[in-house]
C-alpha cells in the first residue's frame, strides 16, 4: 500500500534499517544477529493518520505543546512523506506543507529527513526550508525510542549538572545531580542545553550489556522519557509490559533556542547513533 511503503537499508555486515514513507519514520535498526536497537511497541498501530508508537517519530513543527498547535508534537508524524531518493545505505524523504491546512500554523515549509546507515553508525539529519514569505517559528524533536532489556537496568550518562524542566511536576525547573540517571518511576524531562554526547547504558542487554551513544548537532536540548506503569497502561498502543522495554532520548529544539527561520532560509539538525557492546566490533 503506497501510504505505508517501506525502504530497507543494508550494510555488508548484515545490519539493516527500515524507514517508512509514512511520517518519514525510522521503524527499526537491527544488528547482524537480528536484535533491534530501536523499540517498536507490539501494540503499535500502522494505520494513518495514527502516529506510530516506537521507532523515530519526527516531532515538527512543534515539540509537545511548545508552539501554537493543539496537536501534541505537531503534524508531520501523521502525514505521508515523499521518497526523494534511496540506495542500499541511505534514504531521503521529504514533506511539503503549503501553510493552509492548519490555521494556527500558516507557514509554508519543506522538511527533509535523510538517514544513512554505516556499519556502526546510523545518522539522521533533519533539514527545514522556510518556503513562505514570513519568518517561521518552530520547535522540533527526533523522538527516538531505544530497545532496552528492562528499564530497571538502564541509566543515562551525560546529564549531570544540567537544568531540566520536569514535565511530571508542572515543568518546574530542576537541577540534575545524578551522574547516572535511573528510572525509579515516570521520567519526563527536558534537559536544557544538553551536551553533544549522551549515553544510555543497559546492563541487562544480551551478551553482557549495551551502550547507546547519541551524538547530536543543532538540537540544543534533550528529552528523556519513560512513562512507567500507570501512564503506559492508559496508552492503548503501549501498555504493559511494553513500557519496560523502551526508553526515549530525544534530541530536541524546544526551549533553549526556539528557531524563527527567515523566509527562504534553512535550518538543519542531526543525530548520530552508535552502539557499543562488550567484545563486539560492529
Ligand atoms: O503520546 P505521544 O504524543 O507520542 O507522546 C509521548 C511522550 O513524548 C515525550 O516526548 C513527551 O515528553 C511526553 O510527555 C509524551 O507523553
Automatic annotation (TrEMBL):
Record key words, sorted: Isomerase
MF-aspect GO terms: carbohydrate binding; glucose-6-phosphate 1-epimerase activity
Active-site positions on this chain: 143, 250
EC supergroup of this enzyme: isomerase
EC number(s) reported in the record: 5.1.3.15
Record-level GO BP terms: carbohydrate metabolic process
Chain positions recorded as substrate binding sites: 53, 72, 77
InterPro entries: Aldose_1/G6P_1-epimerase, G6P_1-epimerase, Gal_mutarotase_sf_dom, GH-type_carb-bd
CC per GO annotation: cytoplasm
Superkingdom to which the source organism belongs: Eukaryota
Transit peptide among keywords: no
Pfam families from the UniProt entry: Aldose_epim (PF01263)
Gene3D superfamilies: 2.70.98.10
Catalytic activity line of the entry: alpha-D-glucose 6-phosphate = beta-D-glucose 6-phosphate
Family listed: Belongs to the glucose-6-phosphate 1-epimerase family.
UniProt-recorded name of the protein: glucose-6-phosphate 1-epimerase
